[in-house]
Design a protein that fits this description.
27% strand, 20 strands, 436 residues, six-stranded antiparallel beta sheet, alpha+beta, five-stranded mixed beta sheet
């Protein structure tokens, strides 16, 4: 078929050229924004006070220099109404994030954070105007790490022989985080591996909190040090508080998986903001990373089986302990020894020979013992006028260290109640060995 007439070809060409020119202008503007506030001088050549970037990749570290002019130097996210001198648009950076003020006459530099932004100086989040001195470390948002340099005033700085690098700044944040976690963290020396994980956790948890704030989700994340009651190993977990009503504990791996989805949501929100569109988060969406309908561990209880050493009945109100050793309630349970036919007592005089009682536990070696486990219910002590837990159940193992042993589990109590009832019974058989 014949193509468009020459006049139409000319129009298309002119339109294409205009589109290319507009796209080129957009790219130039994006590049200008990306490097807004960036000095063209190398760090060694810059005479003004400045930030130099820190990075865990030595090839990228100290390659960017952000110099400060005399007076006020606002820093923050892109803002048409009040454009910052130095613009960053990464995670954790907000509009009117902070300001660096350079007093050229008195040769002093100050930094001030706004709007509760994440602005750290030497590992501490600042809440007041803070003086910057040579070699100080500054974190803005979640991913921007800098060292402050003050040419001509190095003698008033920290006096370090070597300039602090990214790993120094990261470890510093971890140390401050450890101190803020209180006695649970400081009672034992944290391993280097856990210290690094805690520093990473602080950054990621701040990132999650910033995302929640931007998306207007009422949830607050905070790091906790968890010590396994059995192995005594320590690890980082995340406490998740939903609007002050309830707090859940997420293992670190679970938090990491959900954080990736949060970042994707935040990216969609940022794109919608840039287009001037409204962003809606569906609170009923099962893929919403802020909503957690997965089973939650309320607590754990230990039951000692000493009574079975003589095959006598045992009943107890056993404390249910949370991740951090707080008593969340008590569980009512019984252990009833059984005879060789799997029946519980009491036994009549004529059936006395069926009674499994033994005077000496050694008599049970090499024999199979049979006993019944009864879990009648739990009395929860979790506070509040309305119980926040529903669809609860109890599961248990004879040997918690045996990974091959399957869990036994009660039926589910569907109601949201402080006193769930299970009325559960099961018969268990175990061969008696020296280890047991």
């Amino acid at each position: 078929s014949p193509g468009p007439p020459p006049r139409r070809i000319k129009e298309l060409s002119e339109q294409g050229g205009a589109a290319r020119q507009e796209r080129g202008n957009q790219i130039n503007q994006m590049q200008a924004n990306a490097f807004q506030g960036l000095s063209r001088a190398r760090a060694s050549e810059e005479k003004r006070p400045h930030f130099v970037n820190l990075h865990d990749d030595s090839r990228l570290a100290e390659t960017l220099v952000y110099a400060f002019d005399p007076g006020k130097n606002p820093i923050g996210r892109s803002n048409k109404d009040n454009p910052p001198k130095i613009e960053y648009n990464g995670m954790g950076i907000i509009r009117d994030h902070c300001m660096v003020e350079y007093d050229e006459e008195n040769q002093q530099c100050w930094i001030e954070a706004f709007n509760n932004s994440r602005t750290l100086v030497n590992g501490d989040k600042i809440t007041a105007r803070t003086e910057l001195r040579h070699q100080m470390r500054v974190w803005l948002g979640n991913n921007y790490a800098f060292r402050f340099c003050f040419p001509g005033n190095t003698d008033k700085g920290e006096g370090r022989e070597e300039n602090p690098d990214y790993f120094f700044a990261e470890a510093e944040v971890a140390q401050k985080a450890e101190a803020s976690l209180g006695a649970a963290a400081t009672s034992n020396m944290l391993t280097t591996e856990l210290q690094h994980k805690l520093a990473n956790a602080e950054l990621k948890i701040d990132q999650a909190n910033i995302i929640a704030t931007d998306l207007e989700v009422e949830v607050i994340f905070s790091p906790k040090i968890y010590e396994n009651r059995l192995t005594k190993e320590t690890d980082v977990v995340v406490a998740v508080n939903f609007g002050g009503f309830s707090t859940l504990i997420w293992p670190w791996e679970k938090f990491n998986v959900r954080l990736k989805s949060m970042v994707q949501l935040w990216t969609s929100w940022q794109s919608a903001e840039a287009r001037g569109e409204e962003f809606k988060l569906d609170s009923e969406d099962p893929e919403n990373p802020f909503i957690d309908h997965e089973p939650q561990l309320i607590g754990e209880a230990d039951v000692w089986l000493n009574a079975l050493a003589n095959m006598v009945e045992f009943s107890a109100q056993t404390a249910v302990l949370s991740y951090f050793g707080r008593v969340e309630g008590k569980m009512s349970l019984e252990l009833q020894p059984c005879d060789e036919n799997g029946n519980c007592g009491p036994w009549d005089d004529e059936d006395d020979d069926l009674d499994p009682f033994v005077d000496d536990p050694q008599e049970l070696l090499g024999r199979e013992i049979i006993f019944e486990v009864r879990v009648s219910g739990v009395a929860l002590d979790v506070g509040g006028g309305v119980c926040r837990y529903k669809k609860t159940w109890v599961r248990f193992k004879f040997d918690n260290n045996d990974e091959e042993e399957e869990w036994s589990q009660t039926k589910e109590c569907p109601q949201a109640t402080f006193t769930p009832k299970y009325n559960y019974r099961t018969t268990m058989r175990r061969m008696c060995t020296e280890e047991i």
